[in-house]
Amino acid sequence: MSETNLPPVIQEMLKPGFYPHPVKEPIKLIQTHVSFVLLTGDYAYKLKKAVNFGFLDYSTLELREHFCRQELEMNKRGAAEIYLQVLPITQGDNKFELAGSGEAVEYALKMCQFPQDNLLINLFQQGKLTEEMVEDLGRLVAQFHSKCPTNDYILSFGEVAQVRQAFDENYAQTAKYIGLAQTQEQFDATKEFTDNFFATKQEVLTSRIKNRKIRECHGDLHLGNICLWDGKILLFDCIEFNEPFRFVDVMYDVAYGVMNFFVGGHRDLANAYLNTYLEESGDWEGLQVLPLYVSRQAYVRAKITSFLLDDPSIPDADKEQAKFAATQYYKMACDCTKLGQGSLIMMSGVSGSGKSTVAKKIARQNNAIHIRSDAVRKHLAGVSLSEKGGEDLYTPEMTERTYSRLLELGILLASVGHSVILDAKYDRQSLRQPVITAATKNHLPLQILHCTAPEAVLRDRLNSRTSDISDATANLLTSQLANAESFTEEEKVFVKTLDTTQDLTAQLN
Q1: Three-state DSSP state, 449
Q2: Which residue, of 82, 170, 172, 216, has the fewest CB within 10 Å?
Q3: How many other CB atoms are found less than 10 A from the CB of residue 144?
Q4: What is the share, in percent, of the chain residues with pLDDT greater than 90?
Q5: Which family does it belong to (predicted)?
Q6: Do 359 and 490 belong to one domain?
């Protein structure tokens, strides 16, 4: 793009002499549909475009200053290390100055610049984003959400009419791209899914309000707004310009990352992110609204990418790339509304038998929801997952509550199309039978995976276990082995026994 097509202030900011500090030449300009970002080496400067999209209004200098300051304040929650200050760009003697003495003509948000390769979206596309990093992200986002405020006003944004407004606006603003970046069939199918959800799932949305899951969230938590810097994962560039876009269900935030991994062809990483978030937060019920929000986030990315097609300052080559990307996002928005057949897998075996290892492997391969009894038990007791539980956590009454909750979640989630793995010992008939009965009653496919290993191996595994949420130790093994009940003839129909000292892939196929 020719610099002459840029606003004069941006043309000036591309010159090294504009800045009071050393710069790395050439200064790089990144544009989105709403902002200019100039990368100078140690610092980045972000300016808001004078645009009004209805859902976002930066059309006046006063609004741009206000939202620069709002952005600075709000991003201290997830990326305080990056955000520095808001500076006026002044004009006097026919020249622009950064924080000069003349009249302010624009405002810039000054930030620490980090390598663009450290954006999680770039690490992902380069194949450098590991499963361990994704799990760390899941835990971080859950902890971030636990601190996000809520109140009656914020909760009101979870009401059907409020939630639906943005969806209807999305469809109205993208109809003109039918035949250009999406098909009529995709548009109709996506809209039909969301219309039907709002018509038939009002109780689900109401329960999200009741359980205070509508919070002041990030609002735009895709992988392009997350970076790895100085060994920390930082969540930056949250929504500052629109309350309905940030006063949202926590699953609205989670859906962005899930969508990114799906579009990038890595459902295994989507599964790692989602299952880690769910385990850390205990919000498994949130899966009922996840498809709605994954579709919405894909559609939003499609929409804002489509907007680039209308921007005269965007080069034709970039517009072709934008069209291709928008087409992918529109397809994703439609595809994720097609829910499959739910199913249940019940793990079985004593502590150390490899249940969680097997369950995790299956979850990654089949995009299944993995629910560990250790996590459920601690959430029920209000105990941190990283904290060792006391004796009161393992009373018969608490065990009964834990298994009841596992079953409740399993049936709920499988009934709406998820494959669910219930990961617990299930070492007694009285614990297994309710699952078999409920699965049969709800016409859900069921499999029992019985994990085994020699006792010496079990002890070695338990003695070497570190940084795990399970409190089980080798001292419990003798009683567990003695009290485990064999499978009945009725149960054996569902059972597949696995020797976890042998190759799992061959046994699971």
Answers
A1: strand
A2: 172
A3: 19
A4: 84
A5: Belongs to the gluconokinase GntK/GntV family.
A6: yes
User: CA-CA distance, 21 to 135, in Å (whole number)?
Assistant: 38
In the three-class reduction of DSSP (H, G, I as helix; E, B as strand; rest coil), residue 411 is classed as: helix
The rounded distance, in Å, linking the Cα atoms of 419 and 410 is 9
Whole-angstrom distance between the N-terminal and C-terminal Cα of the chain? 54
**Residue 505 parent element (H or E):** helix 504-508
Tell me, yes or no, whether 373 and 501 share the same domain. yes
Element spanning 89, H or E: strand 83-92
Give 421's strand partners.
345, 370
The mean of the pLDDT values for the chain is 94
Angle between helices 396-415 and 373-381 (to 10 degrees): 110
Q: Is the pLDDT of residue 127 over 60?
A: yes
pLDDT over 80 (residue 432) = yes
Alpha-carbon distance 281 to 215, whole Å? 14
Residues 315 and 393 in one domain: no
Residues 330 and 399 placed together within one structural domain of the fold? no
Same domain, 89 and 140: no
The range of the structural domain enclosing residue 353 comes to: 343-508
Whether 292 and 150 share a structural domain: yes
Residue 341 scores a pLDDT above 70: yes
Q: Which residues contact 107 (CB under 8 A, 6 or more apart)?
A: 47, 48, 61, 64, 65, 68, 86, 87, 88, 89
Amino acid at 489: E
pLDDT given for residue 436 in this prediction: 98
Q: What is the pTM of this model?
A: 0.92
Q: Are 50 and 36 in contact (CB under 8 A)?
A: no
Task: Tell whether the model's pLDDT for residue 472 goes beyond 80.
Answer: no
Cα dihedral angle (206, 209, 213, 214), rounded to 10 degrees?
A: 110
**The tokens of 326 are what?**
């928008």
Whether 135 shows a pLDDT value over 90: the answer reads: yes
Asked if 441 and 370 touch (Cβ cutoff 8 Å), the reply is no
Mean pLDDT of 299-324: 91
pLDDT band with cut points at 50, 70 and 90 for residue 415 = very high
pLDDT-derived band at 1 (thresholds 50, 70, 90) equals: very low
Segments in 336-427 forming alpha helices (H) = 355-366, 373-381, 396-415
Instruction: Fill in the amino acid letter for 191.
Output: K
Encoded tokens for 493: 């129909």
- For residue 345, the surrounding DSSP H or E stretch is strand 343-348
- Which ranges of 213-367 would DSSP assign to H, the alpha helix? 243-246, 250-263, 267-281, 290-307, 316-335, 355-366
Q: In this structure, what CATH number is given to the domain that contains residue 386?
A: 3.40.50.300
Provide φ and ψ at 496, rounded to 5°: -125, 120
* Mean pLDDT within 445-458: 95
Does the pLDDT of residue 67 top 90, yes or no?
A: yes
- 3-state secondary structure labels for all residues of 228-249: EECCEEEECCCCCCCHHHHEEE
Confidence check: pLDDT of 4 > 70: no
Domains in the chain, number: 3
